[in-house]
Design brief:
By secondary structure, this protein is α+β, with helices and mostly antiparallel strands. Helices cover about 25% and strands about 35% of the residues. The chain has helices at about 10-20, 65-80, 95-105; strands at about 25-30, 35-45, 50-55, 85-90, 105-115, 120-130.
């Protein structure tokens, strides 16, 4: 599934990543009517808020608002934990992902060449969360 397949990550490599034990990350299956529709991996804490390591919606489930629902849920949870930021990276070549995150309040903060794969540039994006502390 692009963009990971374009960077040389096989389905087996993605399966190993999602199944690996990592005390700093939480991984979830996105389930719709009892069937997997995608996956999300979240690292927290990370620079005063959660970092979305992976948000993948399977092609058959795209365009149904699932990614937006995941980001809304994550923003609510992060706000509950008084986090200041949400973070995500997207490949410069994945224009649809960059537009998606920008529509949901993320702004580009840094370009990171060769981060995930040689010859690819990733963009670090941040969504600032606002809190009223009393």
């Amino acid at each position: 599934m692009p963009p990971w397949s374009q960077m040389g990550y096989s389905a087996e490599a993605m399966t190993r990543f999602l199944a690996a034990r990592d005390d700093g990350a939480r991984r979830y299956v996105i389930d719709v009517d009892g069937a997997p529709a995608g996956a999300v991996s979240i690292r927290y804490p990370w620079l005063l808020g959660p970092y979305v390591e992976l948000l993948a919606i399977l092609p058959a489930s795209q365009g149904r608002g699932l990614g937006a629902a995941v980001l809304d849920w994550l923003a609510q949870e992060a706000s509950r934990l008084e986090a200041r930021n949400l973070w995500v990276c997207a490949s410069r070549g994945n224009a649809s992902a960059l537009r998606f995150y920008q529509r949901h309040g993320f702004e580009e903060t840094a370009a990171l060449p060769d981060l995930v794969a040689d010859g690819f540039e990733d963009i670090l994006l941040r969504r600032t969360l606002f809190h009223s502390f009393s």
